[in-house]
Amino acid sequence: MSALTDTIEVVLSEAGGGTHDTRVFRLTRPDGASLPAWRPGAHVDVHLPNGLVRQYSLCGADAQAPDYRIAVKRSPESRGGSEWLCGHARDGARLRIGMPRHAFGVDERARHHILVAGGIGVTPILSMAYALQALGQPWQCEYFVRSEADIVFRDEILLSPLAGKTHIHPALAPDAVRERMTGLLAESKADSHVYVCGPTALMQLSAELARGVLGERNVHMEAFGPAAPCGADEHAFSVKLETWGKAISVPEGKSVLACLRDAGHEIGSSCEVGVCGTCMMRVIEGEPDHRDTYLTDEERMAGTHFLPCVSRSKSPVLVLASEP
Ligand code: FES
Known about the structure:
The protein has 324 residues and is of the alpha/beta class. The chain has three domains: 4-97, Translation factors (Elongation Factor Tu (Ef-tu), domain 3, Beta Barrel), CATH 2.40.30.10; 112-222, Rossmann fold, CATH 3.40.50; 237-321, Beta-grasp domain (Ubiquitin-like (UB roll), Roll), CATH 3.10.20.30. The protein contains seven helices and 18 strands. The structure holds FE2/S2 (inorganic) cluster. FE2/S2 (inorganic) cluster (FES) binds next to loops.
């Protein structure tokens, strides 16, 4: 987690473009100075007054602009993050944010960029679309939403130069989404890259179809939710740290991260749902049971890295090193 000393104070104000369950905020420095530059696809840690830290994508049109913009969807399963921002945040509220982090973004090797967004997953995709448009790169965007009422940034997209290359699909059934993705991938060039952000089902479907056509290296994903429900198919095991031979028991229903901390080991974390990579550790021995959405399939198969906030172990003992 970004320590509070490494954070920047910002003032929150309402920005347009939200929906019935999504609010869009502008973040500015209290003294009007510029916030650090970022690259499209970046996100920041937002430190909330209730002590929670949540990640939100920067979704402005200009990565050099002096302020940031984020969009927050109220989640029915909110653990307090979206609930505070959507329900309690007022204009003028002061928060702290971390520096922009770049785990997702445009791949410059691509000759054609296919952006795929589902619902609030449009936030990093929008900044990438603006950047590709400004660079004159070939791109298109498929934006899937539950209904017309759920189109975040609707007017902005439809009234901007992005409109001609953005295809908005309200209320498409899963079979129709598959058909659309299959069709556009069949027509794609070999050096196309696909970028997906949205609900797990859309990400899995799009990534599976895109990998089959374009290969693993050409598929990029960003997730902001847990991959597997907590407690899914769990059993107890032990972990050891490379530098500390004593075995630490990890019971069913408790994360490796929590067990390591209980044993006195300080491990940095941020999202604690397997999406940000902050807690990443190196695997020295044993077979991880990956439950995150951060590692790529290639990294999972290599079995060299592990996210202790959500992942577990297939082997009875997992030996880890804290340096990634
Ligand atoms: S804290 Fe974010 S992946 Fe573990």
